[in-house]
Every structure is written in C-alpha cells, then in structure tokens.
Amino acid sequence: QVQLVESGGGLVQPGGSLRLSCAASGFTFRTGAMRWYRQAPGKERELVASIDFITRIATYADSVKGRFTISRDDAKNTIYLQMNSLKSEDTAVYYCNAVGLGWGQGTQVTVSS
Fold first, then answer.
1. Which pLDDT score is estimated for 32?
2. Which value, in Å, is the radius of gyration of the alpha carbons in the chain?
3. In what order do the strands lie in the sheet with 68-73?
4. DSSP code of 90?
5. What contacts 24+ positions apart, CB below 8 Å, involve 105-109?
6. pLDDT at site 31
7. Mean pLDDT for each consecutive 10-residue tract of the chain (113 residues)?
C-alpha cells in the first residue's frame, strides 16, 4: 500500500526558509516521478516542482525557480522541498504526489510577519 507522509511545514517570516519532507512507503524510487503541489485558499492546486526518478531531472514552476529545490534520498525513500526566500504568496497547503500512485495528506506553510 502506497503511503506518503509530508512534514516540515509551519509559520515562517518573509525571506525565511523551510524544508518539507515526504516519506514514501509501498514503492521505491525506480521509475516514474515525484512532485510537490500547493493549494492556496480559493485557488486551484498548482504544480510547484517535479523530479524524475530515472533522469533525475528537476523542473520548477516559474514562480519558485531559483528559490525552491527538490531533491531525493533513495536510502530513506524520501523527497524534499527546500524553500528559500519565502514570500507571502507561497502560503499554501503543500502536497507530495507520487505520479500515478498517490498523494500525501498535505502540510501547511504560512509565510507571514
């Protein structure tokens, strides 16, 4: 059974940093891809970052390029989203997605002074 558990969200001031984690179980990082999405109140879910398991190529939404970094730790079956220079518009619930397999429950990120 596929399970994805996010952690690392919280309240941070503008300009600060957070690192989100997504611990995966029930599958291994061999094929496919993992993605981070976010959904702000009243808005549609938005793809933030993606990493391909085979090519290891990472892609990002224009709104987070240069500030966010997606990475993986195969030994821990975990992916991360390092978020730097956070802005108020980054406030959202962040979701981990294993493409074609499932979703995590989400973790709240609030950027506010």
1. 84
2. 13
3. 3-7, 18-25, 78-83, 68-73
4. G
5. 105/4, 105/5, 105/6, 106/6, 106/39, 107/6, 107/7, 107/8, 107/9, 107/20, 108/9, 108/10, 109/9, 109/10, 109/12, 109/18, 109/20, 109/38, 109/83
6. 76
7. 95 98 88 93 96 93 98 92 98 96 96 96
